[in-house]
């Protein structure tokens, strides 16, 4: 086998507010993977006005979900640039057809699923307030402003994004669960799903780290055998 035997193909899944961004950044730092976020990829393509970016924007502007084939084209096109690297996919696949399309192109080694209770996520997200002009983010629980509802630096009022209001958060979490449960089941049957449960990212992370080290060792050993 060639150098590709050393490469790791991983996916991370977790509801909005599950700590997926934090865990992803730690994985990238400790294991030297390339991080591919479908959200970032979409924004970049829309900003650059690429063919697929323009297409995706037409659906977003109409308040519609981007079709599976568009998201799949976007992700697989970008992955062609990362053939020499190990990578971590974040935000893709989100539906069963996307997972099946990814499977036809690459063998996924592991799927990291962050299982954080919805009530905990709701508390996290609804505690978030922002200063619109600067983008500064405050959290009422662990990073509160000095004065409630006021930005520390400018004295201007803070706002709560529509996405962070309790009724919107609950709706988003239910939609995420309905959309991704078939994907989790698909990977569970394939034997590559690893679920990490908890309420705090700092307590979940050591378990993810240990599992990831074991997986890299297994891949290295297989490479030596072949």
Structure in words:
- The chain has one domain (9-223): P-loop containing nucleotide triphosphate hydrolases (Rossmann fold, 3-Layer(aba) Sandwich), CATH 3.40.50.300.
- It has helices spanning 20-31, 38-48, 51-61, 68-79, 96-105, 118-126, 166-190, 201-225; strands at residues 9-14, 34-37, 87-90, 110-115, 128-131, 136-139, 193-197.
- The protein is an alpha/beta fold and 226 residues long.
- It has a five-stranded parallel β-sheet with strand order 2-3-1-4-7, sandwiched between helices.
- Helix 4 packs parallel to helix 5 and helix 6 (118-126) packs across helix 7 (166-190).
- It has eight helices and seven strands.
- Helix content is 51%, strand content 15%.
- Mean pLDDT is 88; it is low at 1-5.
